[in-house]
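User: I'll paste a sequence; please echo it back and then give the predicted structure.

Assistant: Echoing your sequence first, then the prediction.
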Amino acid sequence: MKKNLVNKWVIPCLLALLFAVPSLFAGTPYYDEEMPYGPFYIQSAQEFTKSWKGCWDVPGNPKNFKKGQNINVWHITKQDSIRDDRQFYIRSMSGGTYDFGSMLPPRKNRVDVAGGKTANGTNVLLWSSNGGMNQRFRLKHMGKGRWKIYTMTGKVLCLAGRSSKNGTNVHIWDDHNGPWCEWVFIDVKTRSQFIPKPPITVSLKEACTDTNGNRGRRYFGAASAKKIRRDNAATSIHDTVNAMGDDRVAAIQNITLAARDNKKSSVRMLVYEELSLVDTSKAKKSFALRLQMKMVKETIEATAKHETDNLAKKYLNTLIKNM
């Protein structure tokens, strides 16, 4: 009887609590835009600009990944900075989460909170990718390129004993403030610190409907595909432009030029696809709008000519045909 009671009530409740944990932090301003993949040196913020101490390291100069390899910190010299055991990648996952991995081959390894435990001092190591929540993390930008790395249970990755000496362990602890629990992501190729762009304060609707194009440039020129998809799900670009009446021709031009400046081909493809759905038939009935559309069409043809992404170019050509 007791066993049945456990199966019927206790286990489902525990499972519900487990999967509800991420929602406890839903109000926390985690960074949920797209992070560069890397590879990065991940250095303690308390050493950044002072020295090359405090960088994540897999001890022992390994050539390949093996389950259970520890992560501590070590001083990077010019000679050993090219080693894969000092380099890590960041991969965007669902729900604004990320996983980390070493560049050691094979790259099916993941940074892992040992055993999925939550106690202060639990070790951080490398393990085979298994999709577990103990291999997922959230990032919070503290400003000036300094980051906290949170486990899915709200702990932070930090230096043991607040020390950045060679061999110091990386483990988890209750969330608190201090440079020993903040990290800096340094691009391996450029040796530059990754600092995210300021948050975009312009809304998608404002970016579409501003006939001067200034807000459009601030939005479409800088937004990630992830942000545009999220905003577009609430108010689509083509619906917004279709509701603009005679101003829609100018809007098409402004949005095209703004998106053209975005370096992410995924953004250009998404925006051009939306523009290809805009109804331009009503504009063709007006002599003045036909003249305007002819000039806009020439601008879009020039944009298509220099577009390097084949899918983005395909949507631009569809837009040109519609005009």
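The two ends are 73 Å apart (CA to CA). The first helix runs from residue 2 to 20.
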